[in-house]
Design goal:
alpha/beta, five-stranded mixed beta sheet, ATP-binding, 9 helices, 29% helix, magnesium, transferase, amino-acid biosynthesis, cytoplasm
Length: 282
């Protein structure tokens, strides 16, 4: 069986399980379950701490795993990203009190507090900056107030919590992260079970990003209509009973669907419908 690591808690856990469920896999029913066997799909899911997943996968005990790009890089594990999953996005930034520093070039001799010591140490080393890094688990904003560090490095979403603590974001982002599928370095890239798993997740990603659009239009307007709805390869066009009319079906980006419907209507198209896509293979 394919052995897959899944986050057991935190911000990645729910979305990861939802995506796997959409991909047709059996998920746990209770949070106490640590291992779920899915015999129909020949998969075993192991629910682990997100920070530990890269270590398990790099050891070869598990074939692949779902974790954050930041957690993968911070772990220093011998594992690699093979598929971004488009959820759990975050940005990793430096922050400090106003006037302390403008960016990493001013960090020499200072101490940076962070929960992601591996990422920060590598970022500083890559830029040739001689600064100290102290590891803290959570609530790093108070490190400056308590005199533990002059700089912090943490995940930043809106920046509100930092401003409330009297801090400002400085420098360029250290890292932009999201949930990713990982495998151990040197693992068989053509493993049929892994490839099937990735195709299923890719199908979910596409299904979430597109809708199916159907509409009727006059034949003389078809070329202009098809230009608005080219589909992934080309749309399906069928003649209608009423002479001079055709029915068109095509996949369109979900975020653009309303605008496309407006444009089609102005073109003279009617009976314009959109339907959700639950799964697909491209």
């Amino acid at each position: 069986m394919l052995r897959i690591a899944v986050p057991n808690k935190g911000s990645l856990s729910g979305p990861a399980s939802a995506m796997l469920h959409e991909a047709g896999y059996r998920m746990r029913k209770e949070s106490k379950e640590l291992v779920v066997v899915d015999p129909e799909n020949e998969v075993e899911f192991f629910y682990l701490r997100p920070k530990d997943i890269a270590i398990y996968v790099s050891s070869g005990k598990l074939d692949i795993g779902i974790t954050g790009r930041d957690l993968l890089l911070d772990s220093g594990a011998s594992a690699e990203e093979i598929l971004p999953l488009n959820f759990g996005r975050s940005t990793f930034r430096y922050a400090t009190t106003p006037g302390t520093a403008k960016g990493p070039e001013d960090f020499t001799g200072m101490t940076i507090a962070t929960s992601y010591e591996g990422i920060v140490a590598k970022h500083l080393a890559d830029q040739g900056i001689d600064a100290s890094v102290v590891h803290l688990d959570g609530a790093v904003e108070t490190a400056i107030q308590l005199g533990v560090a002059q700089i912090i490095a943490d995940v930043v979403e809106t920046g509100t919590s930092l401003r409330n603590a009297g801090l400002e974001v400085i420098g360029e982002p250290i890292l932009t992260s999201e949930a990713v599928v990982i495998r151990g370095n040197g693992a068989d890239a053509d493993d049929p079970q892994v490839q099937q798993f990735l195709r299923r997740l890719q199908g979910v990603l596409v299904a979430r990003s597109y809708v199916m659009m159907d509409y009727d239009c006059r034949a003389e307007h078809l070329e202009r209509a098809v230009a608005l709805t080219p589909g992934l390869e080309s749309p399906t066009v069928s003649p209608l009973h009423n002479e001079g009319w055709v029915a068109v079906r095509a996949m369109v980006p979900a975020k653009e669907a309303q605008r496309i419907m407006d444009d089609l209507y102005e073109l003279g198209a009617r009976a314009i419908l959109t339907t959700s896509i639950h799964a697909c293979r491209l």
